[in-house]
Amino acid sequence: MSNKIETKKCSKCGGEWPLQACFRQRNRPGEEPGAPSSYHPVCVMCEITDRNDPTPEERAKRKAQNSIERHAQKWKITPSEFAKRYGWEIARMSYDIMHGLDNTCPYCYERFADMGHGLSDITLDIVDPKREPYYRTNTKWCCSTCNSEKARMAPELWEQRLIVWPQYMAWRDKIKGNATYGLPLFSERELFD
To answer: Which of 48, 52, 83, 173 could form a disulfide with 88 if both were Cys (CB 3.0 to 4.6 A apart)?
Structure first.
């Protein structure tokens, strides 16, 4: 019998913790109970810390730090080297997060306050994934829906969609006010002939 304790790396803090003691199980159909993949990716300590953080500003700082760590991992360099190379400063990033939360997504113009999930709704988009991720020129804080929709779409194609978006919003508002807006109109003669 082995005394080795199975561990798992937390996707939020990066710590390697005992699997059963520090991660919550999730129920997925067809997944074998006890398999490492059947546990949440975030450790219980991070979950509790997130709930107990005293201020949104502190949570914004941690969100900025987590963004740096995740992107540094993709570029296969240390977080400090990544932050220095691309100008990802935690103070500036957390300020931008808080400013964004008080306003709208720069892509879809929906208010973050109306989305209902707080800091979870704001994510960092790499505008052109083919270019290096310099913070001030190739990143933008936006809602998670737009970031997911954009994914790795070419910036030119995404911009075309953004140009049409306000037209869609106006169309949607007109339809809400008048269900027959935009439908073909018929003369009385055509209706009764």
So the answer is: 83
Under CATH, which number does the domain 56-178 receive? 3.30.40
State which amino acid sits at residue 183. L
Dist CA 148 CA 94 (whole Å): 21
The pLDDT, as a whole number, for residue 131 is 93
What does the pLDDT look like over 85-126, one tens digit per residue? Answer: 999 999 999 999 999 989 999 999 899 989 988 888 999 999
Provide the token pair at 160: 């075309």
- Nearest Cα residue to 10 out of 61, 62, 37, 46: 46
- Residue 192 pLDDT exceeds 60: no
Alpha-helical segments (H) within the chain:
19-22, 44-52, 56-75, 79-86, 90-101, 112-115, 135-138, 144-150, 155-177, 188-192
CB 59 within 8 A of CB 67: no
At 69 the pLDDT is 95
0.85 exceeded by pTM? no
- Measured over the CA atoms of residue 158, residue 162, residue 163 and residue 165, the dihedral's sign is positive
The dihedral over CA atoms of 176, 118, 12, 135, expressed in degrees to the nearest 10, equals: 80
